[in-house]
Amino acid sequence: MTPNKFSRLMQRGLSLVEQAVLITIAMATIFAVFQAIAHIWQAQAITVGDLLLLFLYLEVMSMLNHYLGSGNLPVRYPLYIGIIALARFLVLDVAEIDAFRMIALSSSIFLIAIAILIIRYGHVRFPYVDCPTQSK
């Protein structure tokens, strides 16, 4: 089934919107990195929270770079971002978190790490096979 003119036009329009949103995310991430560096410079101290925040931004930029380069997005990237975000939250609020929340956060990080291992194992053990195009 070949797409009609309207379908192709909508695909192009959505592709342009997608590119614009990706550029916006990239620019906002770069701006946020500069803000974080300026904050570190003003405070004249680097904390673990600052480093984790910079790693979070780095993962977002890496995810965007991979998506723009290949056109697909491995599900592992958002999981990495989730782990870093939870670790940052845990590090920054460790004094104010009760034992139950600390266990819950640590368990969440552990479960996401297990999910990444399972996904990675699945990609290695059962790699994707390109389906040949069907001819009529």
Task: Note down, in words, how this protein is organized.
The protein is an all-alpha fold and 136 residues long. It has one domain. The protein is 78% helix and 0% strand. It contains 4 helices and no strands. The protein is extended and about 60 Å long. The termini are close together.
Question: Which word captures the global form?
Answer: extended
Mean of pLDDT: 88
Strand content: under 5%
| End-to-end CA span | 10 Å
Helix/strand order, N-terminal first: HHHH
Helicity level = over 70%
Structurally, how many domains make up the residues? 1
Sketch the major β-sheet.
none
Tally of DSSP β-strands: 0
Poorly predicted parts: none
Main structural class = mainly alpha
Which terms summarize this structure?
single chain, 136 residues, mainly alpha, 78% helix
In short:
With 136 residues, this protein is mostly helical. Helices cover 78% and strands 0% of the residues. The chain contains four helices and no strands.
